[in-house]
Amino acid sequence: MGELHHDEHLLEQARAEIWKSWRRTCAENADHPRAKELFNPDRLPAFHDPFAGGGSLPLEAQRLGLEAYASDLNPVAVLINKAMIEIPPRFAGRPPVNPEARREKTLIARQWRGAQGLA
Ligand SMILES: C[S@@+](CC[C@H](N)C(=O)[O-])C[C@H]1O[C@@H](n2cnc3c(N)ncnc32)[C@H](O)[C@@H]1O
After folding, report:
1. Can you list the positions of beta strands (E) in the chain?
2. pTM higher than the cut 0.85
């Protein structure tokens, strides 16, 4: 499971399947009265989990390239989702901000992928 989770090739294949499926959906709904607005083959629809709990579904949706939204009536779940899917993208590709890491020039100069720097 841990290895699949980080398999970038597999994620790329899944992203391509999502695009394929979305383009087919758009083609099938081309005569919908609001097709232009609702079925744009160049823009994936956003993902919303209204019962997000621990946030695994919006997190995976985000990793698959979808704009992800989460909500829940439990404020603890909301906090978890903020920490999992709202805050990390703001630091994507950025180096660590803590003073100790900032003093270490080699750490700042290297490439930081995704939320590695935040972690
Ligand atoms: C089974 S959990 C979701 C698990 C989640 N898919 C995951 O992978 O962690 C169901 C969630 O729905 C939330 N919930 C239940 N009733 C709700 C309601 N009426 N409105 C919003 N959230 C609700 C609960 O607080 C709980 O976090």
Report:
1. 47-49, 68-70
2. no
